[in-house]
Design a protein that fits this description.
- The protein has 265 residues and is an alpha+beta fold.
- The protein folds into two domains: 3-214, BirA Bifunctional Protein, domain 2 (2-Layer Sandwich); 222-259, Roll (SH3 type barrels).
- 26% of the residues lie in helices and 26% in strands.
- Strands 1-2-3-7-6-5-4 form a seven-stranded mixed beta sheet, with helices on both faces. The chain has a five-stranded antiparallel beta sheet with strand order 11-10-9-8-12, with no helix packed on it.
């Protein structure tokens, strides 16, 4: 990233973020990946709800082998650490809570209505505005519960990049603001997400399921899974997605990638 651009973009206000996220919140101008950094802190016994925030990621990741476009000045990228507690460690619940919290945060700070594409993408106006990646680990891999944790990463597209998004995903990515975001919008987004996420993590799984299902725009819609057409027929309470495949079979997905049919195709 050009040095003159770094000087032009105000740094995140760490003190503002720590007012809500606590004194363990750590902010970076540039990071490899907030998830990777926070997993390292988790292995060093960082407490639950430690937060890492970055203005830019050089190795941002999505699900599988996907990368996450994370340039300076257009978004904010954050990860939250959750320590194992009996009854709260279902990864699908955590990803769903993060999705709902991301929707609530974006809606509070903009005039958009957010929807969710299973399992971890947040959409506005038919395009992706935020993505979620939850990864689990353990400080002591030889113990079932000792040191177990989940790191939940969320990347928000806050402002449109100069010249737009790269061509390979310009037709499916968008941002909260079409021009430069208001001052402190990124800090407010981090704090609002953190507050909503922490509140949702205190709720029972069925409450989170209801809030998530209400925002799932693909219910009843046509999708593509493993190269075959399908219709989404239901989201089960354990967050598995039910598909009616075009070959007459039924699939229940607890992971995997579904895509939306090409427009006009």
């Amino acid at each position: 990233m050009f040095g003159f651009l770094k000087k032009r973009i105000p740094k995140l206000n760490t003190s503002y973020i720590r007012q809500t996220c606590g004194n363990t919140a750590i902010c970076f101008r540039t990071a490899t990946s907030t998830n990777a950094i926070l997993k390292d802190y988790a292995r060093q016994d960082a407490p639950s709800y430690t937060v890492v925030v970055a203005e830019e990621q050089t190795a941002g990741r999505g699900r599988g082998e996907h990368t996450f476009f994370s340039p300076l000045g257009t978004g904010v990228y954050m990860s939250v650490l959750l320590r194992y507690e009996k009854g709260n460690f279902r990864p699908a619940d955590i990803t769903a809570a993060a999705g709902v919290a991301a929707c609530e945060a974006i809606e509070k700070l903009s005039d958009h209505t957010c929807m969710i594409k299973w399992m971890n993408d947040v959409y506005i106006d038919g395009k992706k505005v935020a993505g979620i990646l939850a990864e689990s680990g353990a400080s002591d891999p030889n113990a079932y519960s000792k040191g177990r944790y989940v790191v939940v990463g969320v990347g928000f597209n806050v402002s449109m990049p100069e010249g737009g998004f790269p061509e390979e995903f310009s037709d499916r990515a968008t941002a909260m603001f079409s021009s430069r975001a208001p001052r402190y919008a990124r800090e407010q987004l981090v704090n609002t997400f953190f507050t909503a996420f922490r509140r949702l993590m205190k709720k029972d799984s069925f409450s989170v399921y209801g809030a998530y299902r209400d925002r799932l725009f693909i219910l009843g819609q046509r999708v593509v899974y493993e190269g075959m057409g399908a219709t989404v027929t239901e989201l089960l309470p354990d967050f598995r997605l039910q598909l009616a495949m075009d070959d007459g079979s039924t699939r229940l997905l607890d992971s995997g990638e579904i895509s939306l049919p090409q427009k006009g195709g």
